[in-house]
Design goal:
Number of strands: 29
CATH topology of the largest domain: Immunoglobulin-like
Number of domains: 4
Distance between the termini: 60 Å
Helix content: under 10%
CATH architecture of the largest domain: Sandwich
Mean pLDDT: 80
Strand order of the largest sheet: 1-2-3-6
CATH class of the largest domain: Mainly Beta
Length: 362
Amino acid sequence: MKKIYFSLFSLFVSAMAMAQCTATLSFTVDGNMVVASVTAVGATNPTFAIEWGDGTQDLSDSGTHTYADGTYTICGGMFDMSNPLGCADQDCYTITIGQGGGSDCMVNFSPLISGLNVGVNATGTGATNPVYTINWGDGSPEDLTATGYHTYAGPGDYTICVLYVDDVKGGCIVESCQTVTLAELATDCVVSLEVTANAETGETTVVAIGEGAENPQYVIAWGDGGFPAIGSSATYTYTTAGSYDLCVTYIDVNAPLACNVTECQTVDITIGVNELDSWNAQLLVYPVPAQDQINVALKGALSDDLRLEILDSKGQLVQSIYVGANGWESRSWVVDVDHLAQGIYTLRASSSTGSTVVRFVK
């Protein structure tokens, strides 16, 4: 275990009529072992002593001591042999060693494991001004935080320790350790796509098939800024010509860091449905955003098989407005949309001679 050094506190006495001196105690904690040292300022011929707080002492300026679990007051003292009455001082701290040191000074954590990734959220009690240190047990830099995340280089057993210190003189010091076992990353986490696209209308259907996730979730991104679809299959209509990277992300909700893969396929739309020259029609919808009703106007479309439909953000048909012949050069409808949830919708007019769309927000 990596040793942690603490320079906890120093006493400074202002110079008055006679020379003053101070003692400063510092120590390291490694499990139940404490290494301490005392330094003096202002003494000409100092003599030192370390009182370990359990009935033992070292008559020296440094020493090593192994404690049983518990709470102890450790003091470092000195006096000047040349001036024992005018120059003497001691520096003391209360420390808690091990979880048996008292119920008022404790730290606990539960590691969250996902593949080679581990998260720690530590909770301590008993400290006025707590400071946390997470030691990941693999020689990597420590995290000075109660909540940390770490990615290990490979599988194996690692001992994670959380040191909990009260950054106030006389506060507690306690450490909790747990050993975690990390397994190999999943190698069977894959996803494949089946994409069917109509380049002239922009209508595109994707079906994703994933393997390796215990609790799978699919997210489909269309590549044009449209709202993503949640699910293994969806239909979407592109409105502008271009090449789009249609991507499906496959995630194991139970282990999102161990199984999280993305597969993409390029979709080429040669004629966006708003740019169809074969069907010289104009489609309008208002007001935007829509409330309980929308007004729909279609101009310049002569057809005997007109279809007027509303699609949701996933490209799914949610409402059919009109199906039948249209022998007029202009036609309008008032459509109830109060039953639709808030979101982005596509209004599509189509026939055997072409189609056009317009989007609206409710």
